[in-house]
Amino acid sequence: MQTEMQTEMQTEMQPRYKRVLQDERPDLYDAIMKYRENKENLLSKFATKNNDGIRRRQIFAEDIRTKFSRDADRIIHSKAYSRYIDKTQVFFLVDNDHITHRVLHVQLVSKIARTIGRSLQLNEDLIEAIAIGHDIGHPPFGHLGEKILSDLCKEHGIGRFGHNVEGVKFLDDIENCNLTLQVLDGILCHNGEIFERCLKPDRNKEWEIFDEEIKEILKDKMEYVPMTLEGCVVRMADIVAYLGRDIQDAIGIGLINWNDLNLISAQCRGKIGTENHEIVNNLIIDIIENSYNKDEISYSGEIYECLKKYQKFNYEKIYNNTKRLTEKSKVEEMYKTLFGKFLNDLKRENNDSKIYKHFVGMKEINKEYIKSTSEPEIVRDYVAGMTDRYFEETFKEVVLPKRVKTFNKQEDIQ
């Protein structure tokens, strides 16, 4: 809960913008605040209230937006969010405009999670902020890239890499977005790869506990849950969003066919469905029925057992499919080459390198982060932030010789 000191600090804070509604139209401002108050009074007793939001630094007074709505805006306007546009969800190096990329996946998670949250009378602004930020830390080429980058990080003595921790790093440290604890915690604890029937929030968290949990996760801590029920909803919605969609995409690109789904029992196919829209609808309804007016988010026992079969199918037929991984060794070499190249550039202070022009020297990058971060960690974060296409183009620039029309510096280089 918000302390009296926090409330007092907020009243003394100056607004960020010159034009302030409460100064220009206090009557309209009061009406909006009253509407917000009435709306919040309708939330579940298990919901996170807007005034519960805690920032590391309360620099400006809050405005007509709730704290969590402001967080969602800050995430959307971050450079890291912009790079969702060309990041792999599952199928990398596939030229097909209709398969799911990260930018679509996070919107699907947000939509599904808000549908569940609205039905459970939870805080939709908090849900949206967590959902749109939850995969910001993913490196090029999805989970394969994450595994390769993690191995490189270990080789260079900086510990393993986790996309959930990296997402927090980009938003909290690298771009210094000053988000609330509840949003950052939801991003840290979102992992849809950890599959449980029931999630109960761990409400006993503050900044010191959160920072310590990050360290423990990097040491392979596996059992961690969000501090809010809204964070639990996003974590469940992540699974709902990718399960059927990955099957749909895999069929669309010819990796599997509809007959392969017969490997899942007819009973489970009947309960969950085979089309993506059926799967999404049935899982949403099941979660709502089993979570309403409870301080937990849960599947029914029957659906959970069937979901495990779907998960097993997806891993065997899609994620670990050898056809999907045919370029794995090449991607590994690309990662090694670029990591070594940019680490060398930092050591030599090569200011002409892309790592200076497109990362270290950018005005959006927190200078305190640069001062306090080791060279291998900076390379890790630069590479993790790349889109798939930027990664490929950068590798070509590093490996392939350039052709020129002339040696006159005024002429363009091809």
User: pLDDT under 50 segments (min length 5)?
Assistant: 1-11
Number of domains: 3
N- to C-terminal distance? 59 Å
> Could you say which overall geometry the principal axes of the C-alpha atoms support?
globular
SSE arrangement, N to C: HHHHHHHHHHEHHHHEHHHHHH
CATH architecture classification of the largest domain = Orthogonal Bundle
Helix count equals 20
In the CATH scheme, the class of the largest domain would be Mainly Alpha
CATH topology assignment of the largest domain: Hypothetical protein af1432
CATH homologous superfamily classification of the largest domain: Hypothetical protein af1432
Helix content: 55-70%
Beta-strand content: under 5%
Radius of gyration: 23 Å
* Helix and strand composition category: mainly alpha
Give the strand order of the largest sheet, numbering strands 1, 2, ... along the chain.
1-2
Please outline the major beta sheet. 2 strands, antiparallel
Q: Please, what is the average pLDDT?
A: 92
- Total strand segments: 2
Structure, described:
The protein is mostly helical. It has 3 domains: 4-64, no CATH class; 70-319, Hypothetical protein af1432 (Orthogonal Bundle); 328-399, no CATH class. 57% of the residues lie in helices and 1% in strands. The chain has helices at residues 4-12, 21-24, 26-41, 67-76, 79-82, 102-119, 124-133, 142-155, 163-174, 181-188, 207-218, 229-252, 266-272, 276-291, 301-319, 328-347, 354-360, 367-372, 375-384, 388-399, and strands at residues 198-199, 297-298. The protein has a two-stranded antiparallel ribbon with strand order 1-2. Helix 6 packs across helix 12. The longest helix is centred in the middle third of the chain and has 24 residues, at 229-252. It starts with a helix and ends in a 15-residue tail after the last helix.
